[in-house]
Design a protein that fits this description.
16% strand, binds zinc ion, 4 strands, 147 residues, 55% helix, alpha+beta, 5 helices
Length: 147
């Protein structure tokens, strides 16, 4: 039981709190930091789980990356990939849909690809989701080379 950020050994309660709240092993210091980030950005818990899933797979990503216009849930800058977690699919209004499309358009103009991942996918298929993102990264890398 070690913190995935700083490798500090975790106490029983520290570990249990972290697993209950985030589903990831974090020390008290890094839990507090994450709570602040979540409060500031309304980060969905699935974004955190995906971020650490990617980290485990060796991917350097950024949580709540500010792209100049908005905060992106997860960004992988090396291949210019933005990942947004959709938490309220069933409540998507046409205003939200057009906002999403506009945001995606601005990202594309900056050379970034945006993918949206439903939160339930991360809940049930974290490993497969990470593997698919690895595949997308490979594809993007190949495209960057071509250009
Ligand atoms: Zn830590």
């Amino acid at each position: 039981m070690k913190c995935v950020e700083c490798s500090k050994k975790l106490g029983y309660m520290e570990h249990r709190n972290s697993m209950d709240h985030f589903g990831v092993e974090l020390c008290e210091y890094h839990q507090t930091r994450l709570v602040k980030l979540i409060e500031m950005n309304k980060t969905p818990i699935e974004a955190i789980q995906l971020y650490y899933g990617l980290k485990e797979a060796g991917v350097k990503a950024m949580l709540e990356w500010w792209d100049g216009n908005k905060s992106v849930d997860i960004a992988i800058s090396r291949v210019k990939l933005n990942i947004e977690i959709d938490t309220e699919y069933h409540m998507l209004t046409h205003e939200q849909a057009i906002n999403d499309l506009e945001r995606a358009m601005h990202s594309f103009k900056n050379g970034f690809t945006t993918i949206r991942i439903p939160h339930v996918l991360i809940k049930h298929y974290l490993k497969e989701t990470v593997n698919n993102i690895l595949g997308i990264m490979e594809g993007l890398k190949a495209n960057i080379k071509v250009i």
